[in-house]
Amino acid sequence: MTDLTDIKAQARKDGFARRKAAFDTRLPGMAGRLSEILAGYRGVPLSGYMPIRTEIDPIAAMAEASAYGPVGVPVIQAAGQPLKFSTWSPEGVLKDGPFGAKVPEVDDFFEPEILIVPMVAFDRTGGRLGYGGGFYDRTLEGLRAKRATLAIGFAFDAQEADGLPLEPTDQPLDMLVTESRVLTF
């Protein structure tokens, strides 16, 4: 297996297995540490995400943050395009979006300065392996070209991996929050 595509596919498969095992044994209240971190950025426009499959759930932290400033969720526009972010609120009406993630029924786009980023795997240096569509990489690159943009990964400890197959286009995380720790890069 020398082709980078094959190596990434195997790393994703391994990451999904570790994430599922962690998801199946998760404890309630896991967004508490994320809420603590976000409290230091009250009022700064941020985006979370609506969890799909076995992703760790940031909704409680997003709901708390929404009392202080704008919170959004990503909306996929098309393959190969950066994400847009539509304003979200805990009581807002949602509809099905691409890949099974819920999105606000009515789009109200804004640019966040903090992105809570889901993932398949991460490493100790801030590397992140996503689903392979490059959506967050393109989006972070564009936002960071305009202003400082903080990428906070949110994952289970079990999603950590050594030697992730990363490329120059992969945007690094600035911080990572798991159920037991906070890493800053």
UniProtKB/TrEMBL annotation:
It comes from the Bacteria. Transmembrane segments: none annotated. Its EC number is 6.3.3.2. It holds the Pfam family 5-FTHF_cyc-lig. The keyword ATP-binding applies. It catalyses: (6S)-5-formyl-5,6,7,8-tetrahydrofolate + ATP = (6R)-5,10-methenyltetrahydrofolate + ADP + phosphate. GO terms for molecular function: 5-formyltetrahydrofolate cyclo-ligase activity; ATP binding; metal ion binding. Its cofactor is Mg(2+). SUPFAM superfamilies: NagB/RpiA/CoA transferase-like. GO terms for biological process: folic acid-containing compound biosynthetic process; tetrahydrofolate interconversion. Keywords: ATP-binding, Ligase, Magnesium, Metal-binding, Nucleotide-binding. Signal peptide: none annotated. It is an enzyme of class 6 (ligase). NCBIfam families: MTHFS_bact. Belongs to the 5-formyltetrahydrofolate cyclo-ligase family. This is 5-formyltetrahydrofolate cyclo-ligase. It comes from Phaeobacter gallaeciensis. The lineage of its organism: Bacteria, Pseudomonadati, Pseudomonadota, Alphaproteobacteria, Rhodobacterales.
